[in-house]
Design goal:
The chain is of the alpha+beta class. The protein has helices at 33-44, 93-102, 164-171, 222-231, and strands at residues 23-30, 47-50, 58-63, 66-73, 84-89, 106-113, 117-123, 129-135, 150-157, 174-177, 184-190, 193-200, 212-218, 235-243, 246-252, 258-264.
């Protein structure tokens, strides 16, 4: 396995990903937990540790012993879409949830205590789902910048204008629109640093999904990772191609959870 690079200690210098408003965790709720863990374990080299101990309802995905993501079991009577959900850090999840409501969003779960912190799950005015996390014992993803770790989160929506003010009001982002007449994109920044993006795709938005957050995972080699995805029962949705940020492809796991693979330009 690759050598893991730790993010900053929460008691020391805080990495920007864990400052309020920064993506700090990704979670996947699925119907077939064991099969899903096998898929991602083989693809990314993840190992899994049930949380709380000795239960199978939710597990941390570990890379070199550091938490990178979570995978849980959907209730059998809930026919919900299987999708990766990013969580954004908050210093006060209750206050952030209240701001979500006042800004036109919806809080579907919580706020509630979750062992290592406090969380809520919400949706923006367009319906895109995201989480809010106030870490206590666990600030969030423990490593970054190596294959198998979350690299970026981007909201795919109809147009950026309809939702960026919502996220600006909830998390205090600085907005940086793309300087292009034919590319509808806004970078969400904290202290001048891009932490996430909003991409308006107009009528190209998948009708079966609606607006949604898309998580990118770092890959050592994107084309090889795509082949591995299909060998493991997943699907290729957008072929590997070069972008200004690195080589990237979009895929889905065997249950249909969509994510992207990227080899980030350094």
């Amino acid at each position: 396995m690759t050598e893991a690079r730790e993010s900053a200690d929460p008691n020391g210098t805080t990495h920007a990903r864990h400052t309020p408003g920064s993506p700090c965790w990704v979670s996947l709720m699925t119907h077939e937990t064991a099969a899903t863990q096998d898929f991602y374990g083989t693809l990314f080299g993840w190992e899994f540790q049930p949380r709380p101990p000795r239960t199978g309802s939710y597990a941390w995905a570990l890379l070199d012993g550091h938490e990178v993501a979570g995978i849980g079991q959907l209730p059998p009577d809930r026919h919900l879409p299987v999708a990766w959900t990013p969580y954004f850090a908050s210093a006060d999840v209750d206050r952030t949830a209240e701001t979500v409501r006042h800004s036109g969003g919806t809080v579907g779960v919580g706020p509630l205590d979750a062992g290592a912190g406090r969380l809520a799950i919400a949706s923006d005015p367009s319906g895109a789902v995201f989480g809010i996390w106030q870490g206590v014992a666990r600030p969030g993803t423990g490593i970054t910048g190596v294959p198998g770790t979350p690299a970026w989160n981007e909201l795919v929506t109809r147009d950026t204008e309809s939702v960026v003010k919502f996220y600006e009001g909830v998390f205090g982002y600085e907005l940086e629109p793309a300087v292009s007449a034919d590319f509808d994109h806004v970078a969400l920044r904290i202290d001048g640093r891009p932490v996430a993006g909003v991409h308006g795709v107009g009528n190209a938005l998948p009708r079966d999904r609606g607006p949604h957050w898309l998580t990118y995972f770092e890959a050592a080699e994107v084309d090889g990772a795509v082949r591995r995805v299909t060998e493991l029962g997943g699907r290729l949705l957008r072929a590997a191609h070069d972008s200004p940020y690195g080589r990237v492809a979009t895929v889905a796991d065997p249950e249909g959870a969509v994510f992207s693979l990227i080899r980030t330009v350094t």
